[in-house]
Design a protein that fits this description.
Order of helices and strands: EHEEHEE
CATH class: Alpha Beta
Largest sheet: 5 strands, mixed
Helix content: 25-40%
Structural class: alpha+beta
Strand order of the largest sheet: 4-1-3-2-5
CATH topology: Alpha-Beta Plaits
Radius of gyration: 12 Å
Number of strands: 5
CATH architecture: 2-Layer Sandwich
Number of helices: 2
Number of domains: 1
Shape: globular
């Protein structure tokens, strides 16, 4: 099990991106959150098993918004089992 923290930049606000991320994470039984930031980026924290997280990252890069994403900054963090579902924070 692991936890990753992402900061995603590009054309990712006001286009349904958070809902896409939430559906993708839920489909893979991952927990965490997605949130718009004031600077135009989107923040994502996701926890789950290694293979599901890798599929999640692949889905971000190959999904409906692949052309909208300019950069994904990824940091692996200590798995804390902090979340029980995957939510959109406002």
């Amino acid at each position: 099990m692991k936890r990753i923290h992402l900061f995603i930049s590009g054309y990712v606000q006001g286009v349904g991106f958070r809902w896409y991320v939430q559906r993708l994470a839920q489909r893979m039984n991952l927990c965490g959150f997605v949130k718009n930031l004031r600077d135009g980026r989107v923040e994502v924290v996701v926890e789950g098993n290694d293979s599901s997280i890798e599929e999640f990252l692949k889905g971000l890069k190959e999904g409906s918004f692949e052309d909208s994403i300019e950069e994904i900054k990824k940091t692996e963090e200590k798995y804390e089992r902090e979340y029980s579902d995957f939510s959109i924070k406002f």
